[in-house]
Specification:
Helix content: under 10%
Number of domains: 1
Largest sheet: 8 strands, mixed
Strand content: 35-45%
Number of helices: 1
Number of strands: 33
CATH architecture: 6 Propeller
Strand order of the largest sheet: 25-26-29-30-4-33-32-31
Shape: globular
Length: about 425
């Protein structure tokens, strides 16, 4: 099944020569995009993509890994929570209950930046990291809640406390732009009476040069018109998300390293680039493949939600009375930002049933559905909104959970936390390879 987006104007198909993903970065590129139309309505530029520049699908070729099953403890990983890459290629890895380590571009252990604990240069849980354009490493911790800023030599230069502020998990919780601004994600508290999250919703605060708090970026209320499902305390998964997000259209967002926010409702394949001058670039795909949801999976989802909500005070006989679970998943899963401002849009994949872990509570069903089984593909868009092509993701990259470490994308190189068949964790570097090259 193929889904169709809004079509209130004619799409022009423009012939183009197939070019590499890396060669498409400049607006002065003389090669026209394939199957794209631009229409301006007031302050909004609508970029409608009927086809990508590259007709083939790229793969990620494994180039190098950091990590060992047997060997020095500095090369063993367990519960990787964040990855960051320095300008010269240094690799920073954070782990739950094991601080932050630095490795050379070749993968050799260099030093431990942060140990495990609550001291000035320690952390109990580093949930995100980013390297600023000037080389400073910023580590965001949720135990205790703070920002730790290190110079290029690994020396702690500044600490900022968050006090009682609720922090989101890894994805989109920390971003830097090319102007040395830092964007710190916000996770508002759910209303305890079970009512939906208030909107407009604050998503991040801009810190000017990590010196003082700047503007708060929000997800505008207009996105609720087509994505009315808002998070509530009864459907939350931990403290960070909505259990229904794999099935019902939800508002998605990210912050670009070019200094603006990206917000979209995934009821259709469309998202907005909200520029600081109040102009908008609206990016669309004319058609996209529908990812089916079986009847068995829909029933299992409702059973799972019922178990979750019965953990709250109320009648044990509570049953789900909301809208029917759709027979297909939303148009896309989430955004991942590359360092050059390209937008990587991760699509949903077909869920997979699997046995319930033995450590699960007794009232859990015998079988659970993995809504994010790993793998899938990214659609890659230029900051202009032009769809460059599609990159297939190997299954060892599991970026589905909100607490999963974000891959780092620089040009045609990607660093990601990966897991093998024995559940051994690694840091893996990939290069994009096009099948026709």
């Amino acid at each position: 099944m193929t889904m169709n987006g809004p079509s209130n104007y004619t799409v022009l198909l423009i012939a183009a020569t197939a070019i590499s993903l890396a060669a498409c970065s400049s607006e002065s590129d003389p090669v026209a995009a394939v199957g794209v139309t631009e229409t301006r309505i007031g302050d909004t530029l609508i970029v409608e993509n009927a086809a990508p520049v590259r007709s083939d699908t790229a793969i990620l070729q494994r180039m190098a890994t950091i990590g060992q099953i047997d060997g020095p403890a500095e090369y063993a990983f367990s519960q990787i929570t964040a990855v960051a890459i320095g300008g010269a290629g240094a690799v920073y890895v954070a782990q739950l209950k094991d601080g932050v380590r630095e490795y050379s571009p070749s993968g050799a252990y260099v030093r431990t930046i942060m140990g495990y604990g609550q001291g000035p240069s320690e952390t109990e849980y580093a949930n995100h990291m980013v390297v600023m354009p000037d080389g400073r490493l910023v580590v965001r911790s949720d135990g205790p809640k703070k920002l730790s800023i290190f110079d290029a030599n690994g020396e702690l230069t500044e600490t900022r406390s968050f006090g009682g502020t609720r922090l989101p998990y890894g994805q989109h919780s920390l971003q830097a732009d090319t102007a040395e601004n830092l964007y710190v994600g916000i996770n508002p508290s759910y209303p305890q009476d079970g009512s939906p999250m208030p909107w407009p919703r604050a998503i991040t605060v801009r810190w000017d040069g990590i010196e003082e708090t700047g503007d708060t970026l929000v997800a505008p209320e207009r996105f609720l018109d087509r994505c009315p499902t808002r998070g509530t305390s009864h459907f939350r998964a931990g403290v960070f998300d909505d259990r229904r997000g794999a099935y019902f259209p939800k508002v998605k967002w990210a912050v670009s390293p070019l200094g603006y926010s990206i917000v979209g409702c995934n009821a259709t394949y469309e998202f907005d680039l909200l520029h600081s001058d109040s102009t908008v670039t609206r990016v669309r795909r004319s058609e996209w493949p529908a990812v089916p949801v079986s009847e068995e999976e829909r029933k299992a989802a409702i059973e799972w939600w019922t178990i979750g909500i019965r953990r709250f005070p109320g009648p044990e006989s509570w049953t789900y009375t909301g809208p029917d679970v759709p027979d297909h998943k939303p148009a896309y899963k989430k955004f991942l930002m590359a360092e050059d401002g390209r937008i990587w849009v991760w699509s949903f994949t077909v869920s997979e049933p699997s046995p319930t872990p033995p450590e699960a509570p007794r009232n859990y069903p015998d079988e659970v559905w993995r809504t994010d089984p790993g793998g899938g593909h990214f659609d890659v868009f230029e900051p202009t909104g032009r769809w460059l092509g599609t990159v297939r993701v190997p299954p060892e990259i599991e970026y589905g959970w909100p607490s999963s470490p974000e891959p780092v994308i620089r040009g045609d190189t990607i660093w990601a936390a990966t897991t093998d068949s024995l559940e051994i964790e690694y840091i893996t570097r990939y290069e994009i390879r096009w099948r026709q090259d």
